[in-house]
Amino acid sequence: EKGGYDHFMLKEIFEQPITIADSLRGRLMANEAQIILSGIDDIKDKLMAARRVIIVACGTSWHAGLVAEYVIEELCRINVEVEYASEFRYRNPIIDSDDVIFAISQSGETADTLVALERAKEQGATIFGIVNVVGSSIARISHAGCYTHAGPEIGVASTKAYTAQLAVLMMIALKVAKDKGTISEERFGNLCHELNQIPEKVQWVLDNEVDNIKAIAYKYKDAHDMLFLGRGYNFPTALEGALKLKEISYIHAEGYPAAEMKHGPIALVDDQLPVVFIASKDAYHEKIVSNIQEIKARKGMVISVVSEGDEITPNISNDVMRVPNVDEVIAPLLTVVPLQLLSYYIGVYRGLDVDKPRNLAKSVTVE
Ligand code: M6R
């Protein structure tokens, strides 16, 4: 049932070219520059009139929500708030019937998310579910939605469910932007094309980078702490990389926006601290290069996720993990893959049960 892989987590990481394609299938028509999402059509009037979208989720699904905040605000010019379900449900949030809530959940059974949605629904909000498990509780209480189609995810660490969530959220952002007229025809067409190419670009990483990532994992497997830093669209990727590492390897890790480092965390940097930079080519690339130099100046060990063909970042990094070039908006779908592999191999080299890390359950149905 693991299809020849040692663990479900590895199988699920390797399935991503297929699962992402499954999420896009029948929805993204890149050649015709068209996106069909009937769930979004169902709430179109609400969405067009909404003052804001509130995203409610936990864990990795919350990270997908954070990516969506960056993408929806940029492309659709709609205000987005991303909420931890556990906080949202208890703090008596201000919700009204104009609000549209995007609920993101792999299992569709996460207790905090479910209760937060029930409360918001009582107050008149429109609930849109982005859920993997068909017929799950969150899918059922949603007014409309869009399944992620990643297939069953067995490993406790979310991998293919996350990239499927991102694929769906990207399509939603693109479709709404087109409907609202906040994106040019040309940019829309280009981003559809870029999104359509993601399965083969993920495949490229799996075909070309695994041996390199294994060697990096072996080198850093005994670290006590790691920092993950990214900016812009890749800031949530830093958080996700850190969460994956914590779960699978029990190494303490933190994700931060790269520029926040100098407001505190830089005090941690010494020659024992590996710092992972998500440094794929984007509008902030020069800035992240200077953040890398700040770490190097303090003798930190730098592992960078870089775009193929980048000749600058590898020279100032101790180790690099390469990804194909990709538009910055779509990049989170790709840059997370080396981080999933890094955590997986570090967990394996530490002799841990990567499919069932201690203290964790696949779905958290208690608060
Ligand atoms: O099923 P859900 O997406 O609602 O689960 C949310 C989190 O419990 C989940 O993403 C958790 O953080 C994963 N173990 C992360 O790998």
Automatic annotation (TrEMBL):
It is an enzyme of class 2 (transferase). It is found in: Cytoplasm. The active site is at residue 362. Its EC number is 2.6.1.16. It catalyses: D-fructose 6-phosphate + L-glutamine = D-glucosamine 6-phosphate + L-glutamate. Keywords: Aminotransferase, Cytoplasm, Glutamine amidotransferase, Repeat, Transferase. Residues 43-182, 216-357 form the SIS domain. Its main location: cytoplasm. It comes from the Bacteria. Homodimer. Catalyzes the first step in hexosamine metabolism, converting fructose-6P into glucosamine-6P using glutamine as a nitrogen source. This is Glutamine--fructose-6-phosphate aminotransferase [isomerizing]. The lineage of its organism: Bacteria, Pseudomonadati, Bacteroidota, Sphingobacteriia, Sphingobacteriales.
